[in-house]
Design a protein that fits this description.
5-stranded mixed β-sheet, 419 residues, Rossmann fold, de novo design (two linked rop proteins), disordered N terminus, single chain, Ubiquitin-like (UB roll), 3 domains, alpha/beta
């Protein structure tokens, strides 16, 4: 085991400490002190604070969040919008659900602080259809904050107004992509659009728009109140602080954990997640959801940081870790993942629509023992075209598991039978 503590309650420090349906309960543990502090600060100073501890967006793209807020703030328009992406459609990713469930007022507070920083007047929460049971909880937080003048018009008498609207998706994975999400809110088909224009200039209703996910907003109030630098005491380099991860698959204790950056993959799986069920051998580990890359047991002693995972051939992505034991073959796993992308492709662009379908067909042939060398070459060519020519991240990343499997498990692609 590493010397890093396995858990560090920073993002999750409010969990279980207050009644998530009561604003008064949230206020009793120091809730909204961060907003009171923030509205007295210059927005650029808040963006700089976030940049200094190198917070990267926690939805998967890992873009510098302080830089994003500073860039959004620099766009001068009379009306702007903030969006919280609570779609969380990446398979094996369920960390944001726990934030909404256990700490909804903190999420609302973080969004409001973002509104102050980027000079926005409206915020939207795009909640995935499968989280409809949490809709009442979020709406309650919005309503109570508005009643106490912590949201809405002239917040706390400062002249700053910010309204949050709750919008429910309809279960489309592609709506996790920012422009598809925006079109869905606008009442259009949830399909991505080409960029530019970028969302920070022209997003929802053609207004400058800042989009972050639930975990990204939830960390902000805690950072503003972290006068002793507790967050910065964890991790190093480009991976400072803590991260929410969701661990699932063939482990004894699947769940959401907050870990310090630098915790090894072994400590996560065999420590926090209690090891593999029935003591079985690990076949593969996928990082970052269905669009993430895979590895084998050789990655177990790799520290969970952006740089170390990248060097090992995978990425942090959405924070998901899926453990598959030796009862499932690599090919079975790839076929299951491919079925998902065939189902979820919006069909708008040819590389993704046709590419996913044809790779599905070739993987089936490989499993049946009828694939030819030309099939394998064709499959790799299609996957490469998808990566470089698809309209959005779904098509660009759909074959990450396939590409990494070709490197880590080359025996899977030997011809002559199922593997």
């Amino acid at each position: 085991m590493s010397n890093q503590p396995l858990t560090a309650g920073f993002i999750t420090k409010n969990f279980g400490r207050y009644n998530p349906m009561s604003l008064d309960s949230y206020l009793s543990i120091g809730g909204y002190e961060a907003l009171k502090k923030a509205i007295k600060m210059d927005g650029e100073d808040i963006a700089t604070l976030i940049a200094n501890v190198k917070v990267k967006g926690r939805g998967g793209a890992a873009y510098d969040m302080g830089k994003k807020w500073s860039q959004s703030r620099a766009v001068i328009k009379p009306k702007k919008v903030v969006i919280c992406n609570a779609d969380e459609g990446e398979p094996c990713t369920f960390k944001d659900r726990e934030v909404i469930k256990n700490d909804p007022f903190n999420l609302i507070e973080g969004m409001t602080i973002c509104g102050h920083v980027v000079n926005a007047q409206d915020g939207y929460i795009y909640l995935r259809e499968e989280y409809r049971h949490l809709r009442e909880r979020l709406q309650n937080a919005i309503d109570q904050a508005t009643e106490k003048n912590l949201l809405g018009d002239n917040i706390l008498g400062t002249g700053f107004s910010f309204h949050i609207h709750l919008y429910s998706g309809a279960g489309a994975y592609v709506c996790g992509e920012g422009t598809a999400l925006i079109r869905s809110i606008e009442g259009k088909g949830g399909r991505p659009r080409m960029k530019p224009p970028f969302m920070k200039v022209s997003g929802l209703f053609a207004l400058p728009t800042t989009v972050n996910n639930v975990e990204s907003f939830a960390i902000v109030p805690h950072l503003l109140m972290d006068d002793k630098g507790y967050y910065g005491s964890f991790g190093s380099g480009e991976s400072i602080g803590t991260k929410l991860i969701s661990v699932a698959g063939n482990v004894n204790n699947p769940g959401v954990y907050e870990i310090p950056f630098g915790t090894t993959v072994r400590d996560i799986i065999y420590g926090l997640a209690g090891g593999v069920k029935d003591g079985r051998k690990i076949r593969l580990i996928q990082f970052g959801g269905a669009s993430g890359k895979i590895s084998d047991e050789r990655i177990l002693d790799t520290p969970y940081t952006y740089d170390d995972l990248k060097a090992a051939g995978v990425t942090v992505g959405s924070g998901a870790i899926l453990v598959i034991d030796d009862r499932t073959t690599v090919l079975e796993f790839l076929r299951h993942t491919q079925d998902f992308f065939v189902h979820e492709s919006c069909g708008q662009c040819t590389p993704c629509r046709e590419g996913n379908l044809h790779i599905q067909i070739i993987l089936k042939k490989l499993a049946e023992g009828t694939a030819t060398p030309d099939d394998l070459r064709y499959m790799k060519k299609i996957a490469t075209v998808m990566t470089t020519a698809s309209l959005c991240g779904l098509g660009e990343s759909a074959q990450n598991a396939l590409f990494s499997a070709m490197e880590v498990f080359p025996e899977t692609f030997k011809l002559g039978g199922a593997h």
